[in-house]
Amino acid sequence: MSEHRFPPGVPGPRPAAENGALTPVSSPGILALAPDLVAVDKPAGLPVVPARGEAPEHCLRARLEGELGERLWVVHRLDRETSGVVVFARHPDAHRALSLAFERREVAKTYVAFVGGPRLAEQGRVELALHAARRGKTRPARPGEPGARPAATTWRVARRWPVAGDAGLEIARLELAPETGRHHQIRVHLRSLGVPILFDRAYGRGSVALPPEAPCARLALHALRLTLPLDALDRARTFEAPLAQDLAALERWLDARGEFQSVVEGAAQDFHGRG
Asked: pTM of this prediction?
């Protein structure tokens, strides 16, 4: 087993229960082990798989494989700067079954995002087709455009913090449920609403800028919860990752300030961009 352990404090592998039930793991990294999968709380800054040109060992899958001493199969991904729940398959049959569940949209996902911009309604739904753009980005598709892929996201406002001196601007904590799983879907959909995710370097123009002392500077997006469809024993399995420490610190910081002065980052641009 590799001496490079991930993350700090993660114990060695624990066997799944003999009846196939989940085995919760008390650590800040691995959430649970089962015969078919491992659920893990991904830290921000670590890719699920290595980007082009990066060393293969510098990714979540490789570090978990070293920790568990076994091969793992990627079922879905989170962006590098997103924290939260990721599930890996532990054998090929599980990989096929889990991949099919994601493809059929049978997996329920809940995200938390901190956004800035005009005041939102209490809840809503974005249905906006997406299209691949340059440099690995995504943009809203034009009507009837070839290559467009349907995408929908529901959201609700969990908390609000007003921006001093501007009754129309606020910071908000949202809970989001993507109905589809397109590349950068949540980030693009929120940008289309005029409330980009805080610290989003790719889609954040027009967001509220926080002062330098804010205790977070990375994409303020967290995969909070993931629920798989019923298994062979009629169990719906749910995995939840507590809000990442830097985002929890950001929320406390917003509470302590109440209101704050801010400016809007960058000028508004044509969001359709160029493909």
From this structure: 0.84
- The range of the structural domain enclosing residue 210 comes to 107-231
Contact predicate 83/111, CB 8 Å: no
Rounded-to-integer distance, Cα 140 and Cα 120, Å: 20
The Cβ of residue 56 has, within 10 Å, a number of other Cβ atoms equal to 9
Q: Which residues pair with 154 in a beta bridge?
A: 125, 177
C-alpha distances (whole Å) from 55 to each of 48, 63, 70 are 13, 12, 19
For residues 275 and 273, give the distance between their C-alpha atoms in angstroms, rounded to a whole number.
Answer: 7
79 catalytic? Reply is yes
Beta pairing, strands 83-89 & 221-227: parallel
96 and 125 belong to one structural domain = no
Residue 211 pLDDT more than 90?
Answer: no
Q: H-type helices in the chain, by residue range?
A: 60-68, 92-103, 185-192, 245-257
Q: Provide the pLDDT for residue 44.
A: 95
Q: Is the pLDDT of residue 275 over 90?
A: no
Q: Is the pLDDT of residue 267 over 80?
A: no
Same domain, 76 and 185: no
Stretch 244-273: mean pLDDT: 72
pLDDT band (50, 70, 90) for residue 53:
confident
Q: Which of 79, 166, 255, 270 is catalytic?
A: 79
Dig out the tokens for 163 from the structure. Answer: 């921006």
Instruction: Give bridge partners of residue 109 from the DSSP assignment.
Output: 226
pLDDT digits (tens, 9 = 90+) for 125-150: 999 999 999 988 999 999 999 999 99
Asked if 59 and 164 count as a contact pair (C-beta separation under 8 A), the reply is no
| CA dihedral of residues 38, 39, 40, 42 (deg, nearest 10) | 120
**143 and 37 belong to one structural domain:** no
